[in-house]
């Protein structure tokens, strides 16, 4: 049994009191990684952003960047920058631009925290 952080429940991707299946994958030990071939690792080479242009999500703004824009994170800690938002604000956003390691979005709706 794995306890889910409360923040993940607030983001709306998971529901309280629901059952989810997860995979636990082994990682190679130091001695195992030295015995593998030296070829490229496909997992690292093929990482694509976990979000697409035009996608809408309801998120919580986690932080404010140096230029005053809101910052939230989605799967794998992928950063989404949302202008005109405040820290801890809950908003529905639409992704307007996706780059290799960051995405940009606009606010579609401001959501009351407990909706």
From TrEMBL:
<protein>
    <submittedName>
        <fullName>TRAM domain-containing protein</fullName>
    </submittedName>
</protein>
<feature type="domain" description="TRAM">
    <location>
        <begin position="50"/>
        <end position="109"/>
    </location>
</feature>
<dbReference type="InterPro" id="IPR002792">
    <property type="entry name" value="TRAM_dom"/>
</dbReference>
<feature type="region of interest" description="Disordered">
    <location>
        <begin position="21"/>
        <end position="68"/>
    </location>
</feature>
<dbReference type="Pfam" id="PF01938">
    <property type="entry name" value="TRAM"/>
</dbReference>
<feature type="compositionally biased region" description="Low complexity">
    <location>
        <begin position="26"/>
        <end position="36"/>
    </location>
</feature>
<dbReference type="InterPro" id="IPR012340">
    <property type="entry name" value="NA-bd_OB-fold"/>
</dbReference>
């Amino acid at each position: 049994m794995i306890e889910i952080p409360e923040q993940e429940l607030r983001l709306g991707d998971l529901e309280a009191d629901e059952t989810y299946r997860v995979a636990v994958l082994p990682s190679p030990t130091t001695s195992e990684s030295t015995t593998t071939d030296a070829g490229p690792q496909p997992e690292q080479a093929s990482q694509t952003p976990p979000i697409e242009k035009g996608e809408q999500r309801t998120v919580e703004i986690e932080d404010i960047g140096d230029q005053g824009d809101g910052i939230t994170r989605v799967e794998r800690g992928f950063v989404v920058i949302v202008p005109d938002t405040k820290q801890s604000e809950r908003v529905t956003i639409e992704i307007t631009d996706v780059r290799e390691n960051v995405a940009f979005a606009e606010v579609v709706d401001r959501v009351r925290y407990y909706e």
